[in-house]
Specification:
By secondary structure, this protein is an alpha/beta fold. Helices cover 34% and strands 23% of the residues. It has 2 domains: 201 residues, Rossmann fold; 73 residues, no CATH class. It has a 6-stranded mixed β-sheet with strand order 7-8-9-3-10-11, sandwiched between helices. Strands 1, 2, 4, 5 and 6 form a 5-stranded antiparallel β-sheet that branches. A hairpin with a 2-residue loop joins strand 10 and strand 11. Helix 6 runs parallel beside helix 7. The longest helix is centred in the last third of the chain and has 18 residues. The termini are close together.
Length: 286
């Protein structure tokens, strides 16, 4: 097997509180190859914190601790903040939850995409502009010239998602972290955005970390899945075998979802066992 793009060992994210230290992520280990890796779990399970911690985007007084977070064999924890700014965007990009609101409301979309490209490439403005138009076309935006002149508030939710994906992918990163990028979209637009991401990942040979609470979506879209509960990975499985998962937490999540092939009068309510949060974390290594 090829060396993984990303290798994370024993990752913790900690926040001091008046009641003591709160561990948002607890001992998480996994690798990412050139694949679509899903991370699923309830709100508060540590999914987004894991994604942010990889890029060292946890603000003080929060702390990121790990034995290592290696990108192509180089530990990101050993890099300075200045060096991390070169990693963010250029090597690893992150599409935040509801990405339309990550766009600058007082800059045109074109200026923002051009800025994202020139930040990581020694390119002229005209070269960056043609690259931006090409990237907007790649995410299936029909009239890129008009969109380049527009402001974020003039765009629909689906257009905003595509624009943000274009902006994150224009520096040609090795890894894309997508934090619930389709949660605010209707089903048809959601499918389009996923198809765009899938195509770009395959064409570029990238690694994708897809963070979601939608188990059916992840089972359909990803290659492997990590299931998180209370900051830990409790189960790892191939995405196409997610509905055969064994851990009682994963089974509880699946049983609480409506299914067209097996309709039921009443859905199950997830009953949590305190032992789940005390059990040792499962490794998500390939």
């Amino acid at each position: 097997m090829m060396d993984p793009l990303l290798d994370i060992e024993n990752l913790w994210v900690r926040f001091p509180t008046r009641q003591g230290v709160f561990d948002a992520v607890r001992g998480v280990s996994f690798t990412l190859g050139r694949e679509r890796l899903g991370i699923v779990g309830e709100s508060g399970s540590g999914k987004s914190m894991t994604g942010r911690a990889i890029l060292r985007l946890i603000r003080p007084p929060g702390r990121v601790e790990a034995e290592h977070i290696k990108l192509d064999g180089v530990d990101l924890l050993q890099k300075s903040e200045k060096e991390m700014r070169d990693v963010r965007g250029e090597r690893i990009s992150m599409v935040m939850q509801d990405p339309k609101f990550s766009l600058n409301p007082v800059m045109t979309i074109g200026d923002q995409i051009i800025e994202a490209y020139r930040l990581h490439n020694n390119a002229s403005k005209s070269e960056a502009r043609s690259k931006a138009l090409e990237m907007l076309g790649a995410v299936s935006i029909r009239d890129p010239e008009r969109v380049m002149r527009a402001y974020p508030h003039e765009m629909s939710g689906g257009m905003g998602q595509r624009i943000m994906i274009a902006m994150m992918l224009i520096p040609n990163p090795q890894i894309l972290i997508a934090d619930e990028p389709t949660s605010a979209l209707d089903v048809s637009v959601q499918r389009q955005v996923l198809d765009i991401m899938d195509r770009l990942v395959k064409e570029r040979g990238m690694g994708l970390i897809f963070i979601s609470h939608d188990l059916n979506l992840v089972a359909d879209f990803c290659d492997r899945v990590l299931i998180m509960y209370a900051g830990r990975i409790v189960e790892v499985c191939d995405a196409d075998k997610l509905h055969d998962a064994q851990h009682p937490y994963t089974r509880g999540l699946l049983n609480s979802l409506p299914r067209l092939d097996t309709p039921r009068d009443r859905l199950d309510v997830l009953e949590r066992d305190p032992a789940w949060s005390d059990a040792s974390s499962v490794s998500g290594r390939i």
